[in-house]
Amino acid sequence: MSNFLLALGLVTIFGTLPQLARGQRAAELSVCTFNVRYDNPSDTITWLERREEVAQAVRYFDVVGVQEALPNQYADLQQRMPNHAAFGVGRDADGGGEACPIFWNTERFDFLTGETRWLSLEPARPGSVGWDADLPRIATVVVLFDRMRQQTVRVVNTHWSHVGEEARMHAAALLAGWCGWDEADGNELVLVCGDMNAEPTSDPVQSLMAAAELTDTYEAAKYRCRKEFGTYATFLPQNLANSTRIDYILFRGDVQVDWACADEIIKYGVYISDHMPYHAIFK
Question: Is 16 exposed, middle or buried (0-12, 13-18, 19+ CB in 10 A)?
Answer without folding.
Answer: exposed
